[in-house]
Structures are given as C-alpha cells and as structure tokens.
Amino acid sequence: MVRITEQLIRKRSEHNELIISTLEELSLHQEDIEQIEHIGNWCRDLKILLLQSNLISKIENLQKLKKLQYLNLALNNIERVENLERLESLNKLDLTLNFIGELTSIESLRDNYHLKDLYLTGNPCTDYPGYRDYVMCALPQLETLDGVEVTRTDRLKAMKDFKFNRDRIIQLELAHRIERDEQKIRVAESLREQEERVKDLDEEEQSAQFWQQKSEHCPETRIQMAKYSSKAREKQPTSTDSETVKRRKPILFAECGRPYSLNEPKIKFDFVDEDDRYELNLHVYKYLDTSYIEVDAQPNYIRATIKGRIFQLALKDEIKTDTSTCKRSTTTGHMLIVMPKLNPHNIDFNLARKSACLDKLSNAPKGKSQHKLKGIVDYKNIVKHGNNAEVDEDEIPPLI
Phi and psi of 279, rounded to 5°? Predict the structure, then answer.
C-alpha cells in the first residue's frame, strides 16, 4: 500500500519550489494510493487535486479544502459518492471509470452550489434506466453531465418522471448491492484457489499465470493487477542505475576526424547555404529556457546541445567562428545561427579595388592624364589568321 507522505507531495510540487503550504495544484496520479490522507492538513490552498489512476476506495479527509475547484478521482475503486459536502468551491468532479452503483449517493452533492460539471462515465450506475434524467433533477445546479450540456428543457422534461425514476433506481441499487456481495465472495474464493495453484512457482511464473487467467471487473481484481504490475516495475532497471542502464553515447566523428550530422532532440530546422555564409534556423521549443541550450561553432561543424541532447551539422566549407552569431526569437523561440564562410564562393575581392581605382581616375583634376576605355576591343583578331598572316619564325621553337 502506497501512503501519501510529505516527501511524495514535495516531490510533486517542484513547480512551487517544493513549498506545499501554498500549493494550489497537486497531481498524485498513478501512484497506487489506496487512501486519501494528510492532504487537507498540509495543502489548504489547493484549487486542483488530481488523484486519477490509483486504488482509492473511499472519498475522505478532504473537508478542509475550502478552495478546491477541481477534483479528479477517475480510474479508482470508489463505490459511492460521499464526504464532499464541505467543498464549498467545488466546480468540477470527475469520477469516470469507478465502481459507483449507489447512484442516490450523488444527492449528497446538492449543497455544492458551485458544482457545474460532473463525470460518471464508465460506472455501473450509468446503465440504470433513467440515469441521466435522475441526475439532472437531483443536482439542479449542473450545467454539463458526462460532457453533455444540460439544458433547461431537458431538466423540465425529466422532472415529470423524477419520483418514478428514483424509486426504480433504488430497486436497481439493491439488486446491484446483492450482486456485488456475491461477487466479493466469488472473487475471494478465486484468489484463494489461485494462490494454492501457484504457491510452488517462482514470481515470474506466478505473474504469467495471473495475466493469462480470466478475471471479473471489480475493485479486488484491480488491486491484484496493481500488485503484479508493481512487482514487474521493481524488477525493471531504473534510470538512475548506471550499471544496468547506460544511455547510448552518440558517435560524433568518424575515425578520420570527419564530423557526422545527427539530430538527437529531433527538432525541425532550416538550413540555407549562401555564397558568403551559412544560416541555420533551429525550431527550438518556445517555452524552453535558454539556459538549457549550448551552441558550439567549429570551423567545419556547428553543434547545439538542447537539454543534454546533441544536434550537430557538418559543414562543407570552413566558417569564421569568431564572427558567427546566434540569436533567439522571443516570439517563436526559434534560434538563428549565422556563420560567415572563411573562403566565400563567386565573390571577386578585387572588384571593390577596381571600382575604387576607376572612381579616382574619373575624379582626377584637369591637366592630368586620364585613362578611359574608348570603343570596342576586337579580341578575336589580336592574332592574325589566313594566308596573309605574317609569321615571326624566330619566335617558333625548334621541333625535337
């Protein structure tokens, strides 16, 4: 049995700097908790309490949570609605997939005037004829039931048969209670027989036998399932066990030293190869703090480490690491890395020098020689061809 401890609550209150006295939201789902305790004394300011996917069989010890607005008890072992009358601010109650057969127990919620949303989907009581009409009349403050809007017209129609529906539901509850008592005896006997059959087997074989056999849908079976699941989790290696679980170390370079390209965080990116620079736009998660990101620019590759996961891109041309820039958008969270090339392509470095010289010549004062291009150069006839072409035999090298 898992107990609600101060350590467990502090573990789930990291968003509140581990302070539980001022905690407004608490999530204790999937912890195999069987009893609600201590929360009302330690977390008086709670507005949201999430206890889904546990083994809770009774609603209790919540009467001090005067500010609680949303209570989620889905996927538990609850069989009746009780002890919620003092939750003055309760606005939404989720009891999906429990074992509530005593439908008339919801009448205890009549004084919860702020209750607007109620979810009972997946409970045995939802199979009763007239279930929805009865709930709409029993709780007139509801605005939605099982996610469906409750209109004034629906409520007025249901009011006509309210007494008849309530009497019929009481009879169905009695039948369900008798069936439930018989089920408890039947399941207890089945569990005893199973223990006798598997007492000589090891834990793995016992677990295999349990998961292969047929079982009834009831709180006792759900507890047994949680028990075997817990044993299986204990056998699995944890992430903190460095001897059994080792994170695969990424290979960043080939044996010859050539960098590889890899994308461990699996983020989208845009890469532009210009003549004079590279531009890399990383689609970093919008709400990720920049302190979790490290960027390293090297002559032949760029690397960004995002929460310990490496994004690396090999570059064809060398870059200027000292003049590379990295900027992040405050709107989208994307990161733009601009990397000037060391040897840009298709760029004439002498072009600026030539244009400067021409400017000087054109601006020279009168009386000085000015060199200007005039006419068209006939470069095709620089060397004469044909029979009339004169040949200087002295410039022809001797044949060997």
Answer: -130, 125
Q: What order do you get walking across the sheet with 301-306 strand by strand? A: 262-263, 309-314, 301-306, 293-298
Write the pLDDT tens digit of every residue in 163-199. 999 999 999 999 999 999 999 999 999 889 888 888 8
Q: How far apart are CA 57 and CA 60, in angstroms?
A: 10
Host H or E run for residue 212: helix 203-212
Distance in angstroms between the alpha carbons of the first and the last residue of the chain? 104
Cα separation, 341 vs 324, in Å, equals 9
* Phi, psi of 140, rounded to the nearest 5 degrees: -65, -15
- 12's torsion region: left (phi>0), alpha (psi -120 to 50) or beta? alpha
Check residue 295 and give its pLDDT: 92
Structure token pair of residue 231: 């044993």
Q: What is the distance of C-alpha 118 from the center of its chain?
A: 27
The CA radius of gyration of the chain, in Å to the nearest whole number, is 39
Structure tokens at 116: 């607007």
SS3 259: strand
